[in-house]
Design a protein that fits this description.
22 helices
Length: about 525
């Protein structure tokens, strides 16, 4: 056992290579998913129709809430796996894995019972027509299998990530997404029904779980999940951290996943389709631009434990600036080009989605821009403040959405999300993070935020004339966004940052490129 474990602990001396491999495959996965989403959304709407597609998205959005049944334990997997890996404690790691597997096996069983109850009451919960009731029930029962099995099988993905082999999970996810997309296109082309499509694609996704399990035993050959290793003392250890993760998770679900259900209850399934287009754009933007802060979290924890205030301060300022540099130009391009993008992507029927898309893109920009602050608070002892602030913002989101959707429709729903996110990020979390690292809010804004905002003006001088001059085609939208992004990057590097900071950024980029060239040799 010891010999097998020794092979699994890995070599931590090549951290830059490991990070480069994990991040690059993560962005590859994001790019593949984004491309699939862009191609499949209009294809599915054409073949299924807005009503059936909206029903699919409505039932799928309802299933996302079941993930909160893990009570925060899911967010603890990687943390505790990495902790016991660092201690080289095989038994401790197996006890944690076995305890979590037992908890999630019970949770998954309970989740499917809830799915069954929800499936037979779905017609009373959301505003669907009587002829859609049977289809919605079948979709809930099928998708419920995938979601329920995801609880116990998440242990294996967490073990892989805890051993810093995110690349394995990323590559499996890419292959699975490609297979599901191919099956989707083939089945709709051949005329299969929505229920048949979801049944087959869900089967493919469930089979992927077993690939994750196989990889977990490959990464950690000494892995042993047995009922005898389930310990109540480990439950107490996990709960001390998971309770606050649970509050944060519940809050995020309320903030960002309740919209489709509110729209379905107060408007219609067709309105959910109109909402889905801007929501997909916002989700893609979020995934494309918010990968940095997951890497920063363990660094924050280490800096806080080592009492390194200068390092925490540098992480906060530079992390915020880099997060904003990643999201601001993309968000600005999407907001300026929302009308031609949506018109070219899904057609003029979705013109009502343009303003909604601009609001939701603004929400993502604020979230990503404040992500380093939230990571700092979570990792440096302020997780309670973060949890209860997120909870307050989520409750405000629900209240404002219910109030405004009746008067303003989809725009009111979007503003119900925007206002609480902006308020909590700007007036609570940002000042709290500044106090934690010992800098003033205004000083941090001028140093980390303002240099990333004012280059938008230069970008707009280029993008807006191109938008008005070029036809509403995807290629012209991509060209205008690319040219605008180049103008933004040139302005930022040449004028927005100081000379020594510019040299530092270039040196780090060169170092990363050199590390990437060594990855094939390392493999």
């Amino acid at each position: 056992m010891a010999e097998r474990a020794g092979e699994a602990w890995g070599d931590d001396d090549r951290q830059l290579v490991t990070v480069a491999r994990n991040v690059s495959t993560r962005y590859l996965a994001i790019g593949v998913d984004a491309l699939i989403g862009l191609m499949l959304l209009p294809f599915n709407i054409r073949h299924l129709g807005p009503s059936a597609y909206g029903l699919w998205m409505l039932t799928a959005s309802m299933t996302t809430y079941f993930s909160v049944l893990d009570l925060g334990f899911g967010g603890s997997i990687v943390k505790f796996v990495a902790h016991y890996r660092a201690k080289r404690d095989v038994r401790g790691l197996n006890e944690i894995a076995s305890t979590l597997f037992g908890i999630f096996a019970v949770t998954g069983t309970m989740a499917y019972l809830f799915f069954v109850l929800l499936a037979f009451e779905v017609g009373r919960i959301v505003n669907i027509t009587p002829d859609q009731d049977a289809t919605a029930r079948s979709l809930m029962l099928v998708i419920g299998v995938y979601v329920s099995l995801g609880f116990p099988f998440s242990i294996f993905g967490g073990i892989i990530n805890g051993f810093q082999r995110y690349d394995l999970n990323n590559l499996v996810g890419i292959v699975s997404s490609l297979i599901v997309a191919a099956v989707n296109v083939a089945m709709l082309t051949l005329g299969f029904s929505l229920v048949q499509l979801v049944l087959v694609t869900t089967t493919v996704r469930v089979l992927t779980y077993f690939v994750y399990r196989l990889n977990a035993y490959h990464v950690f050959p000494a892995l042993s999940i047995r009922p005898s290793l389930f310990l109540w003392s480990r439950v107490r250890e996990l709960t001390s951290f998971s309770v606050y993760v649970s509050i944060i998770d519940w809050s995020n679900k309320l903030n960002y996943s309740i919209d489709a259900i509110v729209i379905g209850a107060y408007m219609s399934a067709a309105a959910v389709t109109l909402w889905t287009v801007p929501q997909r754009l916002a989700e893609m933007l979020q995934r494309m631009t918010n990968q940095l802060n997951g890497v920063l979290f363990p660094v924050v924890v280490d800096s806080d434990a080592g009492q390194k205030p200068e390092r925490l301060r540098a992480i906060f300022i530079q992390g915020t600036r880099l997060s904003l540099v990643g999201v601001v130009p993309v968000a600005a391009a999407l907001m300026m080009l929302a009308a031609p993008l949506i018109h070219a992507w899904v057609g003029p029927r979705f013109d009502e989605s343009v303003l909604v898309a601009q609001i939701l893109v603004g929400v993502v920009a604020i979230r990503v821009g404040s992500a380093t602050a939230t990571t700092l608070l979570k990792g440096a002892g302020q997780h309670r403040l973060l949890a209860f602030t997120n909870l307050g913002g989520a409750l405000a989101n629900v209240a404002l959405s219910l109030l405004w959707i009746r008067r303003y429709g989809l725009v009111g729903q979007a503003m119900g999300t925007f206002v609480p996110v902006a308020f909590t990020s700007i007036f609570i979390l940002w000042p709290a993070a500044c106090r934690r690292v010992g800098v003033s809010s205004i000083g941090a804004f001028l140093d980390a935020v303002w240099p990333t905002l004012w280059p938008i003006a230069v970008m707009a001088l280029v993008v807006i004339p191109l938008r008005d001059a070029l036809p509403a085609r995807l290629w012209s939208v991509a060209a205008a966004a690319t040219i605008g992004g180049i103008c933004y990057a040139a302005t930022f590097l040449a004028f927005a940052v100081k000379r020594d900071e510019r040299r530092t950024y270039i040196a780090k980029a060169i170092e990363l490129l050199r590390a990437r060239r060594r990855i094939p040799a390392a493999a």
